[in-house]
Inverse folding.
């Protein structure tokens, strides 16, 4: 069997188009422009790339984009004052503090200072609790993107068995909650799981969010299963020339594609969905703040 390749680039473009249409309607019919504020503290090069890309895509869908770039030695009090200011700003519907923060800043404290209704990353403890109890919440972007891809491929996920490899707060745990919300039978595997191969082999859906290059080989995958590869790992690529590198996922794409029914590539799978879902969350937050109908298909 050769798996269907789930194209996250194409799907993310469709999500962005849907967001753009909704933004246009909000502007035309309600004179409201959704606004997203991104706060970056310090000079982390990867974070700078993400923030630039988020700002560019925010503008492309017609939303207002505000960037706050703060020095690496910004105090907690200064950062909290900025968040309080953004919480009170009616033109801002989504606030994202780019992680990781420099070591002297308490990430939990900072994230929990964001108004939960504007917490478009879905990391505020209130949103974590709402998601865990099956209530309306802001949902973390990467797991939301994975859910959209799975729903698109399967239609209903009800009754399927799913294994999420990884138990982080930003991917693994919310992913498991979302799959449970769609009535999957969910197992969360992690670094201490025994007989991981046998656990994975039971699953109709495998979501790998570990950060270990190509650790899941094809013979772990149940024939016909869907494989969603969240991992992003850089490895050496001597075939491209001396010193060259390339990105790979947590799953060994070539062998998994022989067994799986569907699989996301890395790059070009889950990755593009993350920012698309950030934009979706911002438009959802804007609609909720204004008591308007939310766009269908852009939330969990
Ligand atoms: P993390 O380091 O916080 O968590 C990794 C998890 O993997 C842990 O829960 C750990 O228990 C588990 N783990 C480690 N070794 C294991 C092993 N040998 N067997 C089974 N489980 C093991 O990482 P994270 O933030 O959840 O990110 C995971 C990966 O997803 C990374 O590669 C990251 O770059 C990527 N990621 C991608 C996106 C995206 O937009 N596509 C977003 C977030 C994270």
């Amino acid at each position: 069997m050769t798996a269907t390749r789930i194209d996250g680039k194409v799907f993310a473009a469709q999500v962005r188009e849907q967001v753009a249409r909704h933004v246009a309607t909000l502007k035309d019919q309600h004179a409201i422009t959704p606004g997203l504020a991104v706060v970056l503290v310090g000079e982390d090069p990867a974070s700078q790339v993400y923030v630039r890309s988020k700002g560019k895509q925010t503008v492309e869908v017609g939303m207002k984009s505000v960037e706050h770039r703060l020095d690496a030695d910004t105090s907690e009090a200064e950062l909290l004052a900025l968040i309080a200011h953004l919480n009170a700003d009616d033109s801002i519907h989504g606030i994202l503090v780019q992680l990781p923060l420099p070591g002297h800043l308490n990430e939990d404290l900072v994230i929990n200072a964001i108004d939960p209704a504007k917490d478009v990353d879905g990391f505020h403890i209130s949103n974590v609790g709402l998601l865990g109890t099956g209530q309306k919440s802001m949902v973390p972007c990467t797991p939301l993107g994975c859910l959209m891809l799975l729903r698109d491929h399967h239609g209903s996920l009800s009754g399927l068995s799913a294994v999420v490899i990884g138990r982080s707060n930003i991917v693994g745990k919310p992913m498991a909650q979302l799959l449970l919300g769609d009535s999957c039978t969910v197992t969360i595997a992690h670094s201490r799981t025994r007989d991981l191969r046998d656990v994975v082999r039971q699953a109709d859906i495998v979501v790998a969010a570990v950060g270990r290059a190509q650790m899941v080989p094809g013979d772990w995958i149940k024939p016909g299963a869907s494989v969603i590869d969240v991992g992003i790992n850089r490895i050496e690529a001597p075939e491209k020339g001396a010193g060259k590198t390339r990105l790979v996922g947590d799953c060994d794409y070539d062998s998994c594609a022989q067994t799986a029914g569907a699989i996301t590539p890395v790059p070009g799978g889950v990755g593009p969905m993350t920012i698309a879902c950030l934009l979706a969350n911002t438009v959802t937050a804007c609609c909720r703040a204004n008591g308007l109908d939310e766009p269908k298909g852009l939330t969990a």
In short: The CA atoms of residues 147 and 178 lie 7 Å apart. The two ends are 31 Å apart (CA to CA).
